[in-house]
Amino acid sequence: MLLPTLMRHQLKNTGALLLLIISLTGCQSSFGPNIVKETHTGYNNAIAMTLNHQMLLNLVRLKYLDEAYFLKVSSVTASMSFSGNLGFSSSFDLAPGGNLIKPDIGIGYTDRPTITYQPVQGEDFLKNVLSGISLDAIMVLTQSGWSIERVFGLCVEKTNDLLNAPSASGPTPTKEPKFRKFKKLLSLLKHQLDQGTIDMGSATNDKAINILFKAHNDHETKEMHELGRLLGFTLDQNNSALITLNTNFLKQEKNQLTIRTRSILSIMFYLSQNIDIPIEHVHAGLVIITKNHQGETFDWSHTPAGSVFKILSSREKPENAHLAIPYRDYWYYIADNDLQSKTTFMLLKQLFDIQSGQTKFTGPALMIPVR
Fold this sequence. Notes:
Blueprint: H1 2-63, E1 71-90, E2 101-119, H2 123-130, H3 135-142, H4 148-155, E3 156-159, E4 162-163, H5 180-195, E5 198-201, E6 209-214, H6 218-231, E7 240-246, E8 256-261, H7 264-272, H8 279-283, E9 312-314, E10 321-327, E11 330-335, H9 339-356, E12 366-369
Parallel strand pairs: 7-8
Antiparallel strand pairs: 1-2, 2-12, 3-4, 3-8, 5-6, 6-7, 9-11, 10-11
Helix pairs in contact: 1-7, 4-5, 5-6
């Protein structure tokens, strides 16, 4: 009697087990889409954070006069494999209805992504990062929601005779840069844009970019005259002025605004001046210290870039960091509650993408399997 009973229980459990296996096999086709949903956000966040860390690291490198280097993610390949196991365990129980055959089943999947990095370098890349931001790009940015104060403060190095810290477009200068009149200009431009007295655009079939200044009341007229004194234009009888933008300082004419823009590398150098350097690194002579006219340490936070960007440092890994990277035994970071710096960093990333977007990859690929 024992053998038939054992066989009946075995057949019963085996049949149930086969049904379970068939069910799991049918469900396997839905695992793929579900896995993509689960892993896509993780990949996206990881790659975005990696590129942000790279940009922050390069800003710190420039401050220490170390070479900046860029890698770009060229591909992400995910290899998924399924695994399963099936087994039985048995026990002899003479009691009626005892479970004699016990199935043991398991199923799972393994995700093995491979990320391919390639160096961004070569003649095209150098040309792009060393070339000034185009006026067209600046106009697009200012008309797509970015503050003219922030865009001009980073991208414009000189406007007519007004200087925006041109000596900060490279390694840290030893003397205080000139920027105060330019900073006043930025304040006036922002206020006039907020009042709706400035319009920018290009005429049909005309590549020239024009700015129309139009005052609507006595207060706006007063500020417009102040702008005119800074930029060298005069209002007509309608309290308006049409200014044409150009980049040729050898041919400056009346009612023209001549602009010299920064390259993306110059913008990075400018922003790198606003790093909180550990005092022991200062004493060790690891960085250049800028002095003001009184021979004291110059405060870069007064500059147009410094007023909207700051990188802090600490010996220990910060807890309140939006981004943080270790370098030379310290942590350098952007505070999570520093919205101005986070916004400026976002603009920097967009400018970098604009300038390097057409660069072809050169050099060997670095393929890193993620385990």
